[in-house]
Amino acid sequence: MTSVPVMLSIAGSDPSGGAGIQADLKTATALGVYGAAALTALTVQNTRGVTGIHGVPPAFVADQVRAVLDDLEVGAIKIGMLGTADVVDAVAEVLAGTDVPVVLDPVMVATSGDRLVPEDAVEAIRDRLVPRATVVTPNVPEAAVLAGVAPARSVDDLGAASRALREAGAAAALVKGGHLGGPESVDVLADTAGVRAYASPRVATRNTHGTGCTLSSAIASGIASGLALRDAVGAAKDYLDGALDAGADLEIGHGHGPVDHLWRTR
Hints:
By secondary structure, the protein is of the alpha/beta class.
């Protein structure tokens, strides 16, 4: 018998395939990990944007997660879009009885700064899931909301936000600096060993759909494969950089297209 690492994604569906559950499963597969999935919502979505959301009942979300955990040897869990406080609570209840590492990608704030979830869901994520997370991976506006700080404007600010999230209860926090612009893309991790910056040349591309989903599921896949957190973050960032670079020439959709999840096999 051959053992394979397992990563469970708890997130919403993207019918255009570039983000959400679909991106998570593609990422896991590309990294040699078995991907399982519990759906939290169906979306009407493509590369141009999201125009509709149909939530899955909280008890049914919990039942999906429980079914996977009761049967599969899950090495790590990635949590993405949850949508409502009731779904957050349902997921938190299921995870309370497990010690599986959790990568929390708090899908709460759009690039424009608009809130994607109601305030009670933000509070539930902050109170119930951030303290349960092995690492939380917010972008700049999400980190500001969760940590109660001003949006980062510099790499030093990213470090301050990541430390603030640790003070809020997360074991580690990786604040993504994509919103800052500049020639480099810098993400900053705060963990028990201190603060570490991961920098790479910024890829000139409009095909950025699903980057946050891809990075967080790659981190979870690395952890499921036995990597320590800092190594999992470094490997995930390398994978995403390659997917962005290879995906720059993809012609999929008429908006912000997806990254190339299969770049290593092409």
